[in-house]
Amino acid sequence: MTQPTEGADSSNVEEMMRTSRDYRVVYEALLRSGSPKARFYAKDILGRCFSLKNLGLREVPAITAQQDSARQLQQERCGSFSSDELSFDTLRQVAVDPRFPKGLSEINEKWSKAGADPTRQKEVFGEVLQANDALLLQYIGSSLLSQHQESIKLGNVEFNGDSALDSMRLAWLAAVCEGTGTNCGAGDPYVVDACASLNLCEESRPLALRALVAHKHGVTQQSTFDTAYALFVNAIQSRNAQMFFPEAKP
After folding, report:
1. Among residues 236, 240, 227, 249, which one has the least CA distance to residue 157?
2. Confidence (pTM)
3. For residues 90 and 17, what is the distance between their CA atoms, to the nearest angstrom?
4. How high is the pLDDT of residue 5?
5. Closest by alpha carbon to 80, among 59, 54, 49?
């Protein structure tokens, strides 16, 4: 797995996060930027580092040098945040900090308020697709797809059972990259996490999550992943909210 470096263009927060070895640098750049993405991405950074602090890394020796490098990168990215900065209180403060424009966070709030109303959900999901932001799609699409616990029909394809549904949801996380044209190669958090925790060391998020499907559910479920991935990329690129809400009025 190729190691990221500092110095990415701060106007492209996705690329800055992917190539960063210290998320504090990115966080502080967001704080100064006034970008509509700033609050949403700053909260994501703190949330990731909060989870790493609380979950830690598995206390088992690294199998390969790649896995060891991925673990080091995880620690370096969050190492400059103090324990006081990584707390529920800090996450709540970021959510209302006036220095951050609402931007993408406002769409996320609309989604939370939409509840279980499919008509309202479809409206907001249409806004999410129009925003064309990989992180926003990642969060809200995952929220939408997790509502289906037994089966879901997307277009002409139906996904049934725990393994198929989980493979489909992992495909969504991968598809937001190609769908939005976001570089999810070396340094992507899913790439780093899969390598650090499971020694699934791939060069991109789609490859890492496809390998994770095989690890969790067997290689036969990779065809489920591939089918869902193609559906999702097309839906994102064509801004097709209707596919996710077949019973809602067009």
Report:
1. 227
2. 0.90
3. 20
4. 43
5. 49
